[in-house]
Hints:
Shape: elongated
Helix content: 40-55%
Largest sheet: 5 strands, parallel
Structural class: alpha/beta
Number of helices: 9
Order of helices and strands: HHHHHEHEEHEHEEEH
Mean pLDDT: 79
Amino acid sequence: MSILNQLARYRFARYIKTSFVLWDLVLLNTAVVISFYVRYGSLDGINMKEAQTISLLSNLLWIILLFYKDAFRLIRIEKIESIVFRTTKLVFFHAFMVAAFVIVLKYYDISRLRLVYFYIMFFISLFISRVFFMKILKYVRSKGYNYSTVIIVGANDTGENIRNILSKDLTYGYRILGFFDDKIDPFAFISTPILGGFNDIPDYISKQKVDEMYIALHIDNIKIINQLTDLCERNMIRIKFIPDFQLYTKSRKVEISFYDNTPVLMLRKEPLELTLNIFKKSYLMFVFPY
Length: 290
């Protein structure tokens, strides 16, 4: 039996967060040691009170950032570039906070050059490890392992569109089981089997392994949506909603902002948000005051 077949028996998703944190701490502390050696040619000063305090703060701050920003979150269709970008922002934010602590605590003996060496090494090691990990995951998924089983509620164009996205690349690691809907859109080309109606979903997920459920229903079906949400929570199934932006626009250039807990869809920046337009309006008001 191959190694992948043996590993496939286990579900490691529950350990990913812990593994990410522990591995990042290994990289962080390794960078601390190496940066000391590169800066001073020895590790004689690594046990200084100031150096140990900053190292401890660096570990604690990184753990807080990982959990607060959900940096270990892996979206299966997310590009490596996006993951690296999120990691880069964390490193810069971490560096800012460490520098603030150095100033506030008045640790003037802490070498600024050593900190520069540390962050360069830490960033490079993070970059390599993130890319390597994603490459390994993509390879494993391309072989048919580490996949998530998915059902789509809503046999319509929106549901078929998300099916195309999830299934177009094996490295995403999705296996589409089928659609559920009471009213199938006669004008939509549904290529995956229709497994039943809304009432058939509870019985199906009790017999089949379902990891994720995608809801591609109009808001008019709010009652069934709420029922499916409760069903997924009881059965530990990830539920994801696909808003139908085409009700408002065909444009792909949309932005979602949250006003408290209310999502607001914006198609573009308001004209007055652009500095040039502000000057234009001010000029016109000055020239033509009335």
